[in-house]
Amino acid sequence: MLIYGVAVLAGCYLLGQLTGEVLGRILHIDANVGGVGFAMIFLILLTHWMKEHKLFTLEMEEGALFWSKMYIPVIVAMAAIQNVQGALSGGLLAILAGVIPTGASFLMIPLLAKLFHAHPESDTP
Amino acid sequence: MNWVQDVLIKNGLVVAFLATGILMLITHWLGKRFTGSRIPGSAIAIFFGLVLAYIGGRITGGKKGIADIEALSGFSLMGGSMFRDFTIVATAMGASLIKIRQAGVAGAIALLLGIVIAFVFGAGVAIAMGYRDAASITTIGGGACTFIIGPVTGGALGASSEVITISIAAGLVKSILVTIATPILAPSIGLNNSKTAMIYGGLIGTTSGVAAGLAATDPKLVPYGALTATFYTGLGCLLCPSILYLVVGWIV
User: Measured between beta carbons, which residues in chain A are less than 8 angstroms from residue B47?
Assistant: First the structure.
């Protein structure tokens, strides 16, 4: 059943969000720490385990993959609800404080990638 | 014609599905027809999304872009954090745990460095523009990290609402800039593999920007970038009002 796959995804998502929330509370900060990241790791581990035990059927996988393929449309919708007006009306200080640090961070990417020997992969993940 | 609008409002999410589908149909056609697919249709779609958000903000004066137009209010659900995070997690279906583990250390270092760099340059801009009190400088530095870290830091340190507003705007500028710049800069910064994607997610950190930037660059890289970026805001909310605030207070 398709919904079983969606439910596995939903379960991992909620478990991850709860983990991130708990971590935030432990650290005494008003933010979710890594909820999405934990959810992804749970999903990878759980589906791997279920596939090994022949519990994760192809149809279930399709249920989860549907949402993975909805990612780009959701991001397009997300772009359409950004407060672009607010960003542009923040004045010169806001624009500089957004642009300069971002530029500096982008410059660091190739340096760190070189430091850690990142290279293009020929295989598909 | 009021009843048409009623139907659209009542079925907001479905309207958003249709509108996004039509938008992507147009942008994929534009990408193929005018750039020979050199600029991916998704990148154009995301950019058009930002333009629509700007138009929505101009028309209504609201903060939710196109979703402030009542008939298109379903966009706030489809593009909201629940669907965004749910679909990001779903992309992990194609991710490899081995690659994540291999890039783990690089990702963690990128995270710390990303927060410190954004903060230092953001705080530097604040100082250059005449701010002298540690709370304001720290809040704007936090805003240079993400538009959540700024107000969280400002709230904790008791910064003025004017400074908090600036910090949110700075974070928004960053998020939008990352969205537009990532697909353009990707070839020159070597953003074409899982390890660099994890470094990128850690250094840049702003979830919406990273998510949109990677979507427009190579969707296969999304889970790796999102994995590190998801720790950025939490870590920033931890570091900015504490250690980084102390350092700023010590300097000024």
Answer: 79
Amino acid at A61: E
Domain spans in chain A, listed from the N-terminal domain onward: 2-115
Phi, psi at B151, each rounded to 5°: -65, -30
- Interfacial A residues in 67-96 facing B (CB < 8 Å): 67-68, 70-96
pLDDT of residue A124: 46
Provide the token pair at B146.
């993400």
Q: Is residue A54 scored above 60 in pLDDT? A: yes
pLDDT band per the 50, 70, 90 thresholds, residue B82: very high
**Dist CA B208 CA A83 (whole Å):** 12
Domains of chain B: which residue ranges?
A: 2-79, 97-251
Q: Taking a C-beta distance cutoff of 8 angstroms, is the pair B57, A84 a contact?
A: yes
Query: What tokens does B147 get?
Result: 């538009």
Instruction: Catalogue the E-assigned strands of chain B.
Output: none
